[in-house]
Recover the amino acids of this structure.
């Protein structure tokens, strides 16, 4: 079709498209020219003095002890040329623009990025400055476990290898040596840990300080923290809460069999920490004291409901919470049903909540609550929210031989 058969708007659009094609062709030519130029410069830097056919075919002779003036001249000439090349590279930055280099680096793995950072200072600076947007080292499982009495093992497992370090557990109050911290931080540098498992040892103030130093040096991201059978005998409540809720920002927290603790370790301030508030899953189960007695989690109705309904967080992927033996009242379920009906925004709420070993619940008749059924082992109530067109289903399970009950709260669409 000829341009005469087109109207004015079509001709303008056709001209605009032709102009864009010309610009793309020009940009493409410039990019290809830059790549060729950079490749040539890299080849020159790698082999600035190519061998001639005659010199390459010569048989190496035994090194002479005599000083050859010609060799001295060549050495001085090479040093002079090297100095000139260094000065030229400092004056003129030869290579692709930083934006293009960054785009290319995004396709590399962390191992390739580590090797690329050794090429030159410019590449290293680009990789270090933009490390948050580049690939991280994938660690499937990072374990901190007491293998034998007073011996801690740090183990990092990737898809291809397993690196281990064993250290004597320092019980005299001194910090680990800088060499230990450096080696572990190097092992974890710029990594994303899928599971951090801390198991079977006594957590102290000194150890927390060393671990926080390692995590900061390595710039780690955590997906899941599992703390199993860890003793808090020598750790204050404030240090413990900051450690798991601020220094370790994880998507999931699983704490089971924590011993030698008290109610302050799992008080209301723990649920106000950044990591705990934003986590998609939080589980705290079977916490015991120094006397091996069950510890009541010092969290009341208001604090727990604020946490469940997401009053102090902007996270939207909060899925589940499981708490064992919290200090809630017998009116907790009733308060949850009434408050749910009044909430205008539930985007930050936890979808599924389970609370075990709590007091028997008393639910009063109210226009915000609806009684569903009550049998010997379970009673169910519900509450509708007209603002979000959703419903809160509350189940209270109980057994004849147990004075405590199990509460389940589930938010679902109507």
């Amino acid at each position: 079709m000829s341009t005469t058969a087109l109207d004015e708007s079509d001709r303008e659009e056709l001209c605009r498209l032709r102009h864009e094609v010309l610009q793309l062709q020009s940009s493409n030519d410039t990019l290809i020219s830059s790549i060729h130029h950079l490749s040539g410069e890299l080849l020159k830097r790698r082999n600035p003095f190519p061998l001639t056919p005659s010199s390459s075919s010569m048989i190496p002779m035994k090194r002479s002890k005599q000083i050859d003036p010609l060799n001295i001249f060549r050495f001085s000439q090479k040093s002079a040329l090297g100095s000139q090349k260094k000065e030229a590279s400092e004056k003129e930055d030869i290579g692709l623009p930083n934006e293009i280099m960054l785009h290319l680096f995004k396709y590399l793995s962390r191992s390739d990025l580590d090797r690329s950072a050794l090429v030159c200072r410019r590449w290293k600076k680009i990789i270090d400055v933009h490390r948050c947007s580049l690939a991280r080292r994938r660690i499937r499982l990072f374990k901190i476990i007491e293998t034998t009495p007073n011996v801690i093992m740090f183990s990092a497992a990737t898809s291809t290898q397993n690196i281990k370090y064993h250290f004597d557990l320092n019980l005299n109050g001194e910090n680990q040596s800088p060499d230990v911290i450096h080696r572990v931080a190097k092992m974890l540098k710029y990594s994303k840990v899928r599971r951090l498992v801390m198991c079977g040892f006594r957590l102290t103030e000194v150890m927390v300080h060393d671990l926080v130093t390692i995590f900061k040096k390595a710039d780690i991201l955590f997906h899941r923290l599992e703390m199993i059978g860890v003793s808090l005998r020598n750790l204050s409540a404030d240090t413990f809460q900051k450690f798991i809720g601020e220094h370790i920002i994880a998507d999931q927290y699983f704490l089971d069999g924590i011993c030698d603790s008290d109610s302050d370790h799992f008080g209301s301030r723990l649920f106000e920490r950044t990591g705990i508030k934003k986590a998609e899953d939080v589980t705290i189960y079977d916490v015991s004291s120094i006397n091996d007695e069950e510890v009541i989690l010092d969290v009341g109705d208001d604090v727990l409901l604020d946490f469940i309904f997401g009053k102090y967080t902007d996270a939207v992927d909060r899925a589940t919470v499981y708490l064992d033996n919290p200090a809630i009242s017998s009116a907790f379920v009733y308060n949850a049903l009434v408050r749910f009906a009044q909430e205008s925004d539930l985007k930050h709420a936890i979808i599924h909540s389970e609370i075990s070993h709590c007091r028997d619940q008393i639910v009063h008749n109210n226009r915000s609550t609806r009684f569903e059924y009550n049998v010997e082992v379970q009673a169910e109530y519900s509450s509708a929210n007209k603002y979000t067109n959703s419903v809160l289903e509350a189940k209270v399970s109980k057994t004849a031989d147990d004075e405590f009950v199990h509460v389940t709260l589930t938010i679902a669409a109507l």
